[in-house]
Amino acid sequence: MVIERFDVRISRTKLVVEGIGDHKCEYMIGSIIMVFDKTWKNFVAGISGGVVWVLYKEGTF
Predict the structure, then answer these.
(1) Which domain holds residue 28?
(2) How far apart, in whole angstroms, are the C-alpha atoms of residue 21 and residue 8?
(3) Burial, 35: exposed, middle or buried (Cβ in 10 Å; 0-12, 13-18, 19+)?
(4) Beta carbons within 8 Å of 15's beta carbon, 6+ residues apart
């Protein structure tokens, strides 16, 4: 589980995480992120040229 400010202003990363908190992937440029749980507020704000996949089994995301 990743907490605050994960992958903020980072370019060209490849990451796999199990759940993330607030303010994740902000201003991400060209990164690929896989999230295997829910996300919280301000998720992928300002993303540019990146890809994010979210698998949330609850289906409420």
Answers:
(1) 1-61
(2) 13
(3) buried
(4) 7, 31, 32, 33, 34
Number of domains within the chain:
1
pTM for the structure as a whole: 0.66
Q: Are 29 and 12 in contact (CB under 8 A)?
A: yes
List the pLDDT tens digit at each of the 61 positions of the chain.
666 666 666 678 787 888 777 777 777 788 888 888 777 777 777 778 888 888 877 776 5
Tally the residues of the chain: 61
CA distances to 19, 45, 56 from 48, rounded to whole Å, are 21, 9, 23
The first and second tokens of residue 26, run together, are 């902000």
